[in-house]
């Protein structure tokens, strides 16, 4: 209800306004006076929400009274009624402190109620203090604005920034930090950055939510449009009297931004509310200020029999389904004033299937921090069982009434002593809920024989019975079994009582399964942590983690995969699956991708996965699992992988609690994986270091042997040469000395080439030549080398497969010749019989020449093939090896191939032979 003062000497106008307000706002109270003196008295004696002043009055001018009130600091909102609504008159009223004005045009009285609502609302909003940062390098403009606001908008506090850099220093660098200003007001033309550039920094770079208003001396629509696109909230031109509208512009900009912020907070609150309500057993609801349902939890259907949509379509449905004797009570409850305190209501409804149910109804108003009303939230709880229990308890003795009313834990009254020990004599409703049996079933059972599974082993049954018989109480923990076979832990306090004239015990059983579960979780985390410190491989550790988690949930289908940074692939480090063989895979459009992008656990049922497929969120992956649970693995908030478990048979295999538990444990799993990966890296590094050390030792020993052999020959045979040496022997000794010298030179040359390669001092001397003559030349050289090797049992063949005689190659032919001869020398060295084939594959593919050398020699062991191109690598590095060499030839060959821009690889089978392939780009002479 509002109290309104109308200062109007025209009786027709006052009657029209009074009549219209009685129709539109019947609960408002209107006081009409026709003179300024009476209006002054009313305002001083009575508190009004708003006043309406006519201007021309018998004893003065309404604007004069307005000025007087404002000078006396009276802040009541005032609307000026103007018969001649000229711009000068309106400006005079606003300058005098009017909150609003209404021209007395035809039918004006019909909008009076609406304008009163608007003006009061705006006055409340204007009472909020607003802090404005004003970037203005002209001192006169700033001072004029500040004086105007101080006089006409005291709720606006102005702070000056002389330029853009000054303002940016005063504002936070991100929206996560607090900002002491509500509005940023900028002059368009500023030294340095202009208003648009500053706005871009604030909106896009810093993403601040502060309201922005641009003030300019020129009304340029394109500039205004560009400003609004950037995220500026309003744009005001420095025209005549623009300062009068400035407080409204600043306040509106701030309020719009504040409204967006409040709506975001409200949305987050609503989301949390829905998440909790969706899983609640009670029927939770939310209605808007008009009384329309905007949310009903799924329990609505379970309790009332009607779908949530039915209540959204008919806001009076709850009143309609109330039992006739309660309809009036329920109707009055919903029609009450929302300012009344919250109170609960209990009544009977008739569900959709005709069943009568007791409902406990509680609702309360929802308001934001500014006191704005946003509707009602409430809970409807099915208390039918509670009401039924109340009736049963009334008929029981007083002791059990209190017991059954106050305790939410399961209570059993059982026989003690004799053959009937443990026979159940009475139970409370919580016992039926805890065990899953009906009361009738429980009263036919024995708590020891039918429910008990395992105790704490502190007392035997005989000791237990003896203590109860002696009048002592017993406290212990024990495990029981529900009707559905589920086992659960209880904390039990048993007290001896007398029941229906015979000795009995009253046991209070508190379900501590979740507590035990929490203990188990802590134990699992500890065990996983300890396992990561043991001398286990990563696979052994993950297998242990799978086993430990299996104590909580089904982990028979278990996978751990790690992300490959910068790619869409994940590396599967461990899995156990009943159906699939899982390898590294691309996560694009997969459930794994969704988990890694959200960074949150996801529990997906088969039907949900199908919908995601249909909507194109995930690909057609043939989802076989009934339920799938993925947990992101994180180290220092950075996602490093994913843990996945799934069930192919049971859609209820995992629950939301399981998801929460795994999320808790996932951190320790991530730490364990990281630890094992680091250990694995250290082990590999150690192995590599040991292998490098071994190879260097082998190389030095080999070098000693390879150098000593030709040197011994040179020194030894040269010592045998003298004047008495037989001429035939001289020729033979000279050949041996020359051959040994050449071998020694070859070794020194290889070492020299390795040095040049590692220092990057080998260049290229490219030329363009036909390929066939080059290959024929190689063939002649190889035949000569074969004679030197004295290996006539090997057939050497140059293979030419439809190669054009004019086919040319632009490359360094000296390097190419060295590569080919190195490979052919190896083939001659390790091939004792069979054939050596070499040549160029045809046709040329991918603009590359593919050369090859194939032999039927001894082959290369599989374990050596990955290392054969490294330094010091020799096929046989034993002390009794049959082949000479220092292990540098293939290393040099690979470096030369790479220098030419190609690649080299091999295919080999031990005992059958080896084929070396290498490519050379088909460059064109420039």
Question: How would you describe this structure to a colleague?
Answer:
By secondary structure, this protein is an alpha+beta fold. The protein is about 45% helix and about 25% strand. It has 30 helices and 36 strands. The strands form 8 sheets. A 6-stranded antiparallel β-sheet has the order 19-18-23-22-21-20, with helices on both faces. Strands 26-25-24-29-28-27 form a 6-stranded antiparallel β-sheet, with helices on both faces. A 5-stranded parallel β-sheet has the order 2-1-3-6-7, with helices on both faces. α15 (about 385-395) packs antiparallel against α16 (about 400-405), α21 packs parallel to α25 (about 655-720) and α22 packs antiparallel against α25 (about 655-720).
Q: Numbering strands along the chain, what is their spatial order in the largest sheet? A: 19-18-23-22-21-20
Q: Based on DSSP secondary structure assignment, what is the total number of beta strands?
A: 36
Q: Can you give the mean pLDDT?
A: 81
Radius of gyration, in angstroms, nearest whole number: 47 Å
Helix % is 40-55%
Biggest sheet overview: 6 strands, antiparallel
Cα end-to-end separation: 94 Å
**Percent strand:** 15-25%
Oligomer: single chain
Characteristic key phrases:
six-stranded antiparallel beta sheet; flat; alpha+beta; single chain; 926 residues; 30 helices
Summarize the structure.
The chain is of the alpha+beta class and 926 residues long.
